[in-house]
């Protein structure tokens, strides 16, 4: 395992295991160097297969890779599929089933219950976040929200995430407290958004108060792929599963 891959620091039960890859430790070249896990970003397919095999060595099974579309659908990682489910989150109750989301600025959110009976991973870009992907994932867990723990993984930081007024309006219309997650940008009519703050507000509103992580900026930290920074780039993965 690459020395800079991340083990989330959160009070999850011992049987809950989690891992976040970085862009290091793989075989991809050029803009995708080196551990790109995305099949949809222009990288050589054989390189992506090799990179996924490297990650697979650290896991109990092949992850439930998703066809992510910035929506709110939640897949069952326990159920084998012939093709990646079109979803932006997955849940698992069976030991060894691995939930995974791929990102390169969007926010990955890992969840588990405090008794270690279920886990989930969600891909929360601003569109999915505004549409309710976290609410949908929590509902799919079928656990009282107060008994859940969440971890916010590497994402575009509040000093780099410049958005238009329509993004601010979408969040503020749903929750007036969201104004606290925006400050004026450098350019006229633009805002700097704190996606970590937005996610915490969303989780808090539905009763999830055990929220950890946040603060790793994909744009400023060269360990991570960043679409905003580089344009053509790879994807890293955030993964969670239950051990036997």
Can you summarize this structure?
The protein is of the alpha+beta class and 244 residues long.
In terms of topology, how is this protein built?
Blueprint: E1 16-20, H1 45-56, E2 74-76, E3 89-92, E4 98-103, E5 107-113, E6 119-124, H2 126-131, H3 133-141, E7 148-152, E8 162-164, H4 165-174, E9 182-184, E10 190-193, H5 195-205, E11 210-213, H6 227-230, E12 236-242
Structure write-up:
The chain contains 6 helices and 12 strands. With 244 residues, the chain is α+β, with helices and mostly antiparallel strands. The chain has a single domain, classed as CNF1/YfiH-like putative cysteine hydrolases (4-Layer Sandwich), CATH 3.60.140.10. The strands form 3 sheets. A 6-stranded mixed sheet has the order 2-3-6-5-7-11. Strands 1-12-4 form a 3-stranded antiparallel sheet, with no helix packed on it. It is globular and about 45 Å long.
């Amino acid at each position: 395992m690459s020395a800079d891959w991340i083990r989330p620091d959160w009070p999850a039960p011992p049987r809950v295991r989690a891992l976040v890859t970085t862009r290091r430790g793989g075989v991809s070249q050029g803009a995708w160097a080196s551990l790109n896990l995305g099949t949809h970003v222009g990288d050589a397919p054989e390189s992506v297969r090799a990179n996924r095999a490297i990650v697979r060595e650290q896991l109990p099974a092949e992850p439930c890779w998703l066809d992510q579309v910035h929506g709110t659908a939640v897949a069952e990682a326990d159920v084998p599929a012939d093709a990646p489910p079109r979803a932006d989150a997955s849940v698992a109750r069976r030991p060894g089933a691995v939930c995974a989301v791929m990102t390169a600025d969007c926010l990955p959110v890992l969840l588990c219950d405090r008794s270690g009976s279920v886990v989930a991973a969600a891909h929360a870009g601003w569109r999915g976040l505004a549409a309710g992907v976290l609410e949908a994932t929590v509902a799919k867990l079928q656990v009282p929200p107060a008994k859940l723990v969440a971890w916010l993984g590497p994402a575009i930081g509040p000093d780099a995430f410049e958005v238009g007024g329509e993004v601010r309006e979408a969040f503020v219309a749903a929750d007036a407290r969201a104004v606290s997650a925006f400050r004026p940008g450098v350019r006229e009519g633009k805002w700097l958004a704190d996606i970590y703050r937005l996610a915490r507000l969303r989780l808090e509103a539905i009763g999830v108060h055990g929220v950890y992580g946040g603060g790793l900026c994909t744009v400023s930290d060269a360990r991570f792929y960043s679409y905003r920074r580089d344009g053509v780039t790879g994807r890293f993965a955030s993964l969670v599963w239950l051990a036997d």
